[in-house]
Structures are given as C-alpha cells and as structure tokens.
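Protocol step 4 of 6: structure prediction from sequence.
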Amino acid sequence: MTRSSSFAFPTRRHFLIGSAATTLSAAAVALLAGNPVLAAANNGNQNSAADAGTLNTALALEHEGINAYTLGAQSNLLEKSVLPLAIKFQDDHKAHRDRLIQVIRTLGATPVAEKSLAEYAKALEVDKLKSQTDVLNFAAGLEDAAVNAYLGIIPAFQDRQLAKLVGQIAADETEHYSLLSHALGRPLPAPLSFGV
C-alpha cells in the first residue's frame, strides 16, 4: 500500500478560496491553519461538545482495532507472510487514534480511555480463534463493522471538516476490509455495499 495514513488537513488557502470558506466554523479554519489554541478558543459551544462525543465513539473503535490486531498477532496463528499486513493495519489504527485524540483535545474534551488487553480479549472472544483463517475472518468482520460505524456517524457532525476526517478513516477501513477479503479468497465488495 503506497497511500499515506496521515491525516493532514488541506491547507488554509484551499478553504479560504471559493464558497467553502463561508461554511467553515472559526474553529475549523483554526484547525486547518494548524492553530489548535485558536481553535479551542472558538469552540466553547454545544456543537463542539457533540462533535467531541462523536469523535470519542470513533476513538473507542480505534482502541478496539489496535488491540484486536495485537491479539491476532499474539495468537501465533498468522503465517510470517501475513503478519506484516496485520502490523500495517494496526499502525493505520494507531495513526487514526493519534489524530482523533489530537482533535478531541483541541475541542476541549477528554479522549475516551483505552481498556486493558484482557478486556478486549474477553469482549471480542478471541479464545475462539483456532486458525489463520479464523483470525482473518475476525479482522475482516471488525473492519466491516468499523466502516459501517464510521459512515453512520458522519451525518452527526456539526463541523463538516470533522465529518471529512471520519470519512478519510472510513476509506482506510474499507481498504483494510477489501484486502482482508481478497486474502480470504472472497470477492471484493460490490458498489454501494457499505453504510446500508
């Protein structure tokens, strides 16, 4: 995969040109300009609290994804040729987590805490994994659920730039799901198969 997983927002200049600038909140413009202090000063309202709550939902998904890949790797069920892909996907989830934490803090909220690895193991029932195929099916199921969850929360954002960020993450999750499906010998997803 050659695409970068970083979530650099477009430049401020890009958004100040054209009609898009009129729809951005002062906080969004400050975030785009790389000024989190100014963004926080412009975000003391209920919309920001609601957006931060929605982002915390996304952050909880990322904590789960990171720990799921840790558990999958620790299972010793993955072949050496497959393990790098799992580590790459986990790294993507870590990048998502870090970006979400940064934005949540910028909005003046507290990021949701990560649970223990044992709690994730129990909740995800990883003791049922007995083969590499089980692990890949498990990961594909989590990625599919993540795509649909991200698509489901996009309309909840008051600040459309945050909706865009979540859309970027959903695209990464879709890529993960598609590659896992291919590795499992499944057909690639049909058009418009997510978010229904």
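Step 5 (inspection) to follow. The first helix runs from residue 12 to 16.
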